[in-house]
Amino acid sequence: MPGKVILLVEDNRDDEELTLHALQANNIRNEVVVARDGSEALDFLFGTGRHAGRDVSAGPAVTLLDLKLPKVDGLEVLRRVRADEQTRFFPIVILTSSTEEQDLVRGYSLGANSYIRKPVDFAQFTEAVRHLGLYWLLLNEAPPPKGSKVS
Amino acid sequence: MPDASFGPGKPWTEPAVLASALHKKLENLAEGQPMNDPGLTERIEASLKALVDTAPAGIISAGASGRILQFNKAAERLFGYSASEMIGKPLTMLMPDRFHGPHLAGFNRYLTTQDPHVVGKSLELAGRTRDGTEFPLELSLAAWKSGEEIFFTGIIRDITERKKFQQLLRETEERFRVLLESVKDYAILTLDADGHVTSWNSGAERIMGYRAEEIVGRHFSVFHEPEAVEAGRPQGELERAKAEGRYEEEGWRVRKDGTRFWASVVIAALRDPEGNLRGFGTVTRDSTERKKAEDTVQQHAAEVSAVNKELETFSYSVSHDLRAPLRAIDGFSRILLETYSGALDQQGRHYLERVRASSQRMGELIDGLLTLSHVSRSELQLREVDWSRLAGSIAKELRRSAPERKVEFVIHAGMKATGDARLLQAVLENLMRNAWKFTSRHPRARIEVGMATKEGKPAYFVRDDGAGFDMAYAGKLFGAFQRLHDGDEFEGTGIGLATVERIIRRHSGRVWAEGEVQKGAAFYFTIGS
After folding, report:
1. Which of B102, B119, B253, B433 is an S-S bond match for B263, by CB 3.0 to 4.6 Å?
2. Whether B139 contacts B154, CB under 8 Å
3. Which residues of B339-356 are buried (b: 16+ CB within 10 A; e: fewer)?
4. What angle do CA B60, B64, B65 make, to 5 degrees?
5. Which residues of A touch B (CB under 8 A)?
6. pLDDT less than 50: residues of chain B
7. Nearest CA in chain A to B312
């Protein structure tokens, strides 16, 4: 069973707080796990380090992934998730300030499900988060957990 | 006059027949036999006379006295004397004075020694005509005996034309030689079919350092670097020239003193009219300076590309790093306004609004700057753009943004523009939005998008009858962050026209504006030079 956890990978405390506020403002009550760098995100996703022993098959309902991160950057996190049999179907939404074409291209090439630019305007940002929650937590049909076979 | 006795249907002048008859007569004479055919002598003499008279060359015979015995028609034409005038006259009459002495000396020597000094050879001499004109002639001299008497017969050809031709040839060769010699900037040399130097000009000496006598005969591979010779390149070049007629390349060559120079080389195969390879002509230019300049340009290009790379990194961090704090300022002030508005009085809320407005404006500025830098960096993809249609759709969008406004759009039909579609759209959007913005204080407005001829060239324009501007500040319009109106009057970042200017410049065009305060403004631009 995919969990209902939202993984927020964000190194900027302001953006973290604003994102949490926007989720709350939109009545999205799912548990939010915050990873402040790429390596922490990988620990959560693969059940290693601080998250050793976590049931990995219960992946986050959606991962909101910033690109510019300390230690391991967002694109590398994406690459590793897509390369692993257990995690490759996890929905990953890139949520970043960058509108650089190269980031968009790399993000999609590595298999991002979506690419969202954080607007400067907080009203627009809140709106974006509302759509995100609605789509990924309610509308989107999550992939079956690892191990289930096509009958 | 045809004569049947010399064979049916054959012309009586046929040399072979004549020669055999002559031979026969001479044989008979030598044997002292009387001739069986009494008419033969006359016939032979008649035909000989005809032959001599119709010969194209002058034929003059003389006895041992040096007096003329025979003077044919061609000789008459050559010298301007008639035969009757000349028979019995001395040969010296036909020569310029300076030849008289040598002629007589040679003549007498032959008579005494019979040394065939000139007899039987062709000589180039000069003749003198009746009117004293000299002309070059070729003399073939024969001496013969009849009994004990010696006779001379000379065949004379006017070689004026040949001399002229030879002179022309000499002059042409000389001109060519002078030309080759005077070419100092090119090494021009010829090679034999195996690649050995056969000729060498002063340009070759100047560029490669060898004197002609040092290099003629040596193989041209001495001009190549040892590695090139080892790799068989010199032979390869000749093979290519042989196969394709011509071989061209640029590469390093070596001078006599061992220094290198960057050479532009052309090798052409030289063939005779039958197509046999006679050798090669090669022209070499020392292009070292140009090569250096090109290398410098390349180095600069690499530096520019490195700077561009840095710029890219910079704009990346601008887009990423400057946005985050702005979002925080905007976000937290908004949360404060919405959630804690009760704790603030009106003045406090006003200040917060100002904070938010400023952060949003800064966001726009950053976006504008990024667009501007993007315009400079992105590669142009040229294609034809339907300018009229594009203007129409922008007008529609503007109308939708403020349906209450009374603005008349006049868009010329059938306009096309060739350029990068995305960038040209940005140009038209900027200009039309500007027109829309600066007419907003007028109750009615007219915005025209069209083409006009400016300074003989087609120019696109966007014209409005809005706020306009003072032409004194026209130069400031296209600078980044330059604004002619304050932010309260008309909002804007001051980057739009700078972006327009940069896009037009990248399309090798020019943009300029005409305006008058409260009468309106017109922006013109051209695309392509």
Report:
1. B253
2. yes
3. eeeeeeeeeeeeebeebb
4. 90
5. 12, 14-15, 18, 21, 67-68, 96-100, 118-123, 125
6. 1-15
7. A100
What pTM was estimated for this model as a whole?
Answer: 0.48
Q: Are A123 and B357 spatial neighbours (Cβ–Cβ below 8 Å)? A: no
Assess contact for A96 and A67: CB atoms under 8 A: yes
Interface of B to A at Cβ within 8 Å reads: 315-316, 319-321, 323-328, 330-332, 334-335, 359-360, 362-363, 370
Give me the residue label for tokens 């700077």. Answer: B307
Backbone angle region of B409, left / alpha / beta, with phi > 0 → left and psi within -120 to 50 → alpha = beta
Among chain B residues, CA nearest to A98: B320
Please state the three-class secondary structure of B448-459 as a single string.
EEEEEEECCEEE
Is B327–A99 a contact, with Cβ atoms under 8 angstroms apart? no
Number of H helices, E strands in chain B: 16, 17
Among the partner-chain residues B315, B334, B370, the one whose CB lies closest to the CB of A122 is B334
Q: Which runs of consecutive H residues, i.e. helices, occur in B6-128? A: 15-31, 40-54, 73-79, 83-86, 100-113
Mean per-residue pLDDT, A41-56: 89
What confidence score (pLDDT) does residue A69 get?
Answer: 87
Q: Which of B327, B359, B366, B371 is the best residue to mutate to test the A interface, defined by the most A CB atoms within 10 Å of its own CB?
A: B327
The set of residues, in sequence order, having a beta carbon less than 8 Å from that of B29 and lying 6+ positions away, is none
| B95/B51 Cα distance (integer angstroms) | 25
Q: Is A68 in Cβ contact with B334 (below 8 Å)? A: no
Q: What is the pLDDT of residues A75-111, one digit of tens each?
A: 999 999 999 988 888 999 999 877 777 888 999 999 9
Counting every residue written for chain A, the total comes to 151
Cα B55 from Cα B13, distance rounded (Å)? 11
pLDDT band at A123 (very low <50, low <70, confident <90, very high): confident
The size of the A-B interface in CB pairs under 8 A is: 57
Residue count (chain B): 529
